[in-house]
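Sequence, please.
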């Protein structure tokens, strides 16, 4: 893989993680309630940390062909999806999954 392909993968990863986190956020609370576990928090934490790590990798990855503006826009996109994932994780921690 070339550096450009890796960079494109890193740009697409936070939105993809958000989509996966949204889907799992609808499924895992019911499983947690039945089993009495807290796997939703663990999965959400793992997804948020992965999203932040890809954003940091974008920032540290150097300059892209589209310049400084493009790099900052990519980092802003990653941070916004990471923030959305944190808010979804906070909702899954604060709300009781068994009250449905």
């Amino acid at each position: 893989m070339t550096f450009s392909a890796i960079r494109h993968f890193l740009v697409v990863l936070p939105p993809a993680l958000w989509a996966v986190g949204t889907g799992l956020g609808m499924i895992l609370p019911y499983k947690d309630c039945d089993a009495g576990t807290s796997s939703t928090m663990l999965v959400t934490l793992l997804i948020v940390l992965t999203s932040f790590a890809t954003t940091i990798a974008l920032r540290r990855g150097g300059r892209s062909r589209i310049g400084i503006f493009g790099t900052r826009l990519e980092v802003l996109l990653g941070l916004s999806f990471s923030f959305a994932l944190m808010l979804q994780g906070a909702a899954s921690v604060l709300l009781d999954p068994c009250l449905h």
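Residues 3-94 form one domain.
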